[in-house]
Known about the structure:
Structural class: alpha+beta
Bound molecules: cobalamin, iron/sulfur cluster
Strand content: 5-15%
Shape: elongated
Order of helices and strands: HEHHEEHEHEEEHEEHHEHHHHHHHH
Radius of gyration: 23 Å
Amino acid sequence: MLGEEIRAEARGLGFSLVGIARPDPSEHLSFYRRWLDEGRHGEMGYLARPDAVARRGDLRQTMADVRSVIVVALEYLSDARPEETADAGSGVIARYARGRDYHRVVKAKLEKMAAAVRARVGGEVTARAYVDTGPILERELARRAGLGWFGKNTMLIHPRRGSWFFLGALLLDIDLDPDEAFETDHCGTCSRCLDACPTGALLGREASGAPVMDATRCISYLTIEHRGPIPRELRTAIGNRIYGCDICQEVCPFNGPKFAEASSEPDFKARAHTTDRTLIDLMAMDEAAWDEFSRGSALRRAKRDGFMRNVAVALGNWGSAEAVPSLVSALVDTEPLVRGHAAWALGRIGTSAARAALDARLEAEVDLDVREEIELALAADSGKSG
Length: 386
Ligand code: B12
Ligand code: SF4
Ligand code: SF4
């Protein structure tokens, strides 16, 4: 009975999917460890910390008396679905980051769920809420709670709701009847996501059936998690994605208009400034403008230097002479990371004005990495015209 009330409460809070899982040890920790050993996680050191790996393997190391886990999905697809790559002079921010920071939104709803459970049980209930905020294998828990299967794009996909949702987990010290795990793989012979990924980050299923991603090649990793220079050989493939990437979800048939619906969550409505600014507008942001732009949003994670690095790459990929003045200004940005990527972009554009600006900056630049970027940009450019 309590399970039904929990489901009703979850729907009332706006969660489109809800399920209950037993807090059994992870079935996939050996795969997870192998994935780390192969270095697929790149600089995301928090995924590899030995104590945190052990906690992913066994929820009891996070909450000793955990007896059930409620897993929920909150959809975030807002009504704004522009033609993502049509205008290369504009940058594309992944859908999940266009509204208010999801960590706060989902967590607040999970706290309300916990309060409702306490009110129903009428006694002490210990509850801990997680939304990408701790060492929990959220997608594995979601599969075990019956919410969907692991697609070849590594997303947790529901056969009727697709994958445009966040997951959240509520650990409880009370017994609840678990749901049946989701056992069917609906991908079949489809390989659209593997074919569409511009950087070759999706490696397909390994023999065990686990979908494998090399996160170090994923645009989402490169534009958000990765702190330093973006590897040169991957910059072109990033196109105009300036924060995160949705390509492997956009092409998935389970996210087509027949399946996925817009979210009714007002907090996830796309904020205008995440969709209506050109790359040139964005490149002009100083620290104060960035602070205002990213306030209350998941965008903040990249920090200004990381975000402006991404914008510079997108301007270079646009390749238009219109981008030159804005990139020339970025050549004297306070952050070497931004200056270096602006140099790369000017080298791609290769007009005489771009070349002259690179030559002039080489005279003054003292940062060794930026100097290298400028020299490579000038060399690549002379190779092009010669
Ligand atoms: C690290 C991380 C990333 C990394 C790495 C992504 C990855 N695929 O591993 C990067 C930065 C690239 C990333 C990107 C994105 N992320 Co992310 N990310 C996470 C995070 C924090 C951990 C994921 C993780 O542990 N990865 C390591 C791999 C090995 O683990 P796994 O993905 O769970 O895979 C399991 C399977 O492989 C399984 N397995 C093993 N053997 C077998 C065998 C069989 C037969 C099967 C079926 C499975 C299986 O075992 C693994 C461990 O359980 C989670 C939150 C969380 N705490 O779980 C969010 C999370 C996965 N991300 C999320 C989102 C929304 C995104 C983006 C869409 C954001 C964007 N638009 O840019 C992209 C999507 C990219 C993609 N295709 O995955 C959501 C996904 C929701 C969903 N529907 O699946 C999560 C759950 C956050 C949340 N709370 O909502 N992310
Ligand atoms: S998010 Fe983009 S880069 Fe990452 S795996 Fe999917 S398509 Fe490839
Ligand atoms: S695009 Fe095809 S292969 Fe990829 S996750 Fe969706 S259904 Fe599976």
